[in-house]
Amino acid sequence: MTTPSPAVRTLRKYGLTEHDFRMRVIHQGGVCAICGQVPTRWVVDHEHKRGWKRMPAEKRVRYVRGLLCWRCNYFFMAKGITVERAQNVVRYLQEFKERLGTKWDG
Question: How far is 91 from 73, CA to CA, in rounded Å?
Answer without folding.
Answer: 21
